[in-house]
Amino acid sequence: MTDYEAKRAYISKDEAERYDEVRFSHTQGKMLDTIEKESVSNLLKNGCSLGLILDLACGSGRFVEMISGSYDGVKLVGADISKEQLKVAKKRLRNNRSLEGLVLCDAEFLPFRNGSFDCTITIRFMGLLPPAVRQTILKEIHKVTREEVILNYPNSISASIILRILWKLERTRPEFFPVSPSSFCKKIRAIGFEIVDKQTPLIIPPRRFPKIFLNNIKIINSLGKHSLIGLLSEQHFVLLKKKCNNESNRS
What pTM value is reported for the model? Predict the structure, then answer.
């Protein structure tokens, strides 16, 4: 198993219990939470298979909760490397009838049979993975998923990264690993995926700005969904579909 910073960053009891509060309890965080959930929901609506879904790096279970509350008959499994995060998720989802189970595991070695899930969702995870680890985990996801994958990744040519370089701002820990859209597309095609839909809702992430600017930020971000400036979105949310075996073998 590979060791990297993010693997250790979220496993403590204190981090697990404070995770949602620190990130999503304030006004800016609530806006970010809404943007992320709307992006995933929009991709799910694009013909995504809604039988059995894996939420990988499920954390506190907020996406399990969101999906189960929006789609009848869906079943979900949550998986995470943090036992403490899974405890928080278990408490949050204790009355959730769509939850099939919570699994403690390392995403580099997923303990599921080939094609176990109709769809896999993994949000706020890819950007924390060093490139080689990201490829390993994407291959594991490809193995256990029958149809589609929804994920987001940090864009290396985003407006926020450009501004961070110009203003010489330091990135808060843990370290993150952005990738350009063209490079990401090439790498996932080599694994056996193709991008069939994309959401680009974060030209200006709300977390770094005072409340007074949030309405303007909301307008600019909405423009990113429907124009070329979406290429500068900090995060790209994508719907991947598995290619057929013979096409994948030619890649």
Answer: 0.93
